[in-house]
Design goal:
The protein has 7 helices and no strands. The chain is an all-alpha fold. The longest helix has 8 residues. It comes from Parasteatoda tepidariorum (Common house spider).
Length: 70
């Protein structure tokens, strides 16, 4: 899992609002499962530094977000 404190520190760069809009997921769902988010997939829609997320891209599975969507 990702270090949630690390994500929170850079939440302004991750721009979860944009992620929510592209993924058609609620903000609350994303925050709840943000440790499962596939950053490599999200970065396609973000204007954030790739080096920032590349080391986490293989540790998480975006399918878990979809599967747990209510």
């Amino acid at each position: 899992k990702l270090d949630l404190r690390f994500i929170e520190n850079y939440s302004d760069r991750l721009n979860m609002n944009v992620v929510s809009r592209y993924q058609k997921l609620s903000m609350n769902l994303i925050r709840k499962f943000q440790d499962y988010v596939n950053w490599d997939y999200i970065i396609q829609y973000q204007d954030i530094d790739k080096d920032f997320v590349i080391e986490f891209a293989s540790k998480i599975d975006f399918c878990l977000l979809i599967k747990n969507k209510s």
